[in-house]
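Subject: design request, 204 residues
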């Protein structure tokens, strides 16, 4: 049975580890763990607690620490976490881990837990690409709506200025352009011009 269990562990597509809380490091890893991360058990054993914890992305360290508290509390059966981990080659990969209590100490506290993880980097990249696409679509929609609204806002005073100017031209052709009519139309054009300038300043 032990031989069979070892074969299953060694051939697993998941990275498998046993983490010792007192030592603050993994005391067992399977071959897939090394395949995914590049670290051997000797590499890990030669790290201090801080060095090992430093392999977790700074943006994820707080939730990793919280995850560790939940696991070591002894409450619950299975704990799941997504996080970024630095490989031996210096690359960041996304991992999805599931941990469960493996061994307790004499007082009933959690001494070790066993976990398995998979590399979900490609899935996370696909999700990020999809989010970026959605954001771009929303931005383009917002831009189109903004330009449409601006076009309408600018067109209104422009049309008014054109209409007032055409009114002046019509009065001139008919010989009915009085100083009063001219002043009124010019005042309308000036007011519309100020309104247009105000709109442009707001846009800028």
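Subject: RE: design request

Done. Sequence follows.
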């Amino acid at each position: 049975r032990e031989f069979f269990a070892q074969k299953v562990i060694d051939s697993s597509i998941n990275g498998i580890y046993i983490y010792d809380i007192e030592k603050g490091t993994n005391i067992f890893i399977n071959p897939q763990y090394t395949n995914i991360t590049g670290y051997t058990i000797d590499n890990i054993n030669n790290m201090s607690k801080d060095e090992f914890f430093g392999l977790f992305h700074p943006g994820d360290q707080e939730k990793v620490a919280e995850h560790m508290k939940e696991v070591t509390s002894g409450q619950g059966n299975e704990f799941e976490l997504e996080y970024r981990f630095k490989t031996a080659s210096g690359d960041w990969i996304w991992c999805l881990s599931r941990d469960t209590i493996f061994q307790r100490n004499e007082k009933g506290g959690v001494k070790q837990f066993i976990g398995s993880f998979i590399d979900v980097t490609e899935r996370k990249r696909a999700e990020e690409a999809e989010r970026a696409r959605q954001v771009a679509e929303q931005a383009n929609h917002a831009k189109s709506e903004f330009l449409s609204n601006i076009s309408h806002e600018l067109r209104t005073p422009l049309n008014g200025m054109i209409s007032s100017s055409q009114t002046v031209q019509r009065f001139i052709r008919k010989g009915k352009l009085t100083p009063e009519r001219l002043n009124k139309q010019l005042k309308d054009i000036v007011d519309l011009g100020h309104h247009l300038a105000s709109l442009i300043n707001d846009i800028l």
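The first helix runs from residue 2 to 11.
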